[in-house]
Design goal:
There is one protein chain. This protein is α+β, with helices and mostly antiparallel strands. It contains one helix and six strands; from the N terminus they run ββββββα. It has one domain (13-67): Nucleoside Triphosphate Pyrophosphohydrolase, CATH 3.90.79. Strand 2 (19-22) and strand 3 (25-28) form a beta hairpin. The chain is globular and about 55 Å long. The mean pLDDT is 91.
Length: 75
């Protein structure tokens, strides 16, 4: 349903870059997109920030939803 607001409402997103070492090799976490656009393509985990969330809360939620990661040091 379309909404009309008296002021602009920008859409804010987060994308998470997660680095790790695997036998001395630097790796980055990617997910395969489950939805269009670009379904099946590789991407960084991320998504829209909800109105009640901080950026860190949104990043943690997206990592849990998209990659199943819940215990991670964020900086």
């Amino acid at each position: 349903m379309p909404h009309s607001y008296p002021y602009p409402r920008p859409a804010l997103t987060v994308d998470c870059v997660v680095f790790g070492l695997d036998e001395g090799a630097l790796k980055v976490l990617l997910i395969q997109r489950g939805l269009e656009p670009f379904k099946g393509m590789w991407a960084l985990p991320g998504g829209f920030v909800r109105v009640e969330e901080t950026l860190e809360q949104a990043a943690r939620r997206e990592l849990e939803e998209e990659a199943g990661i819940s215990k991670l040091y964020l900086e």
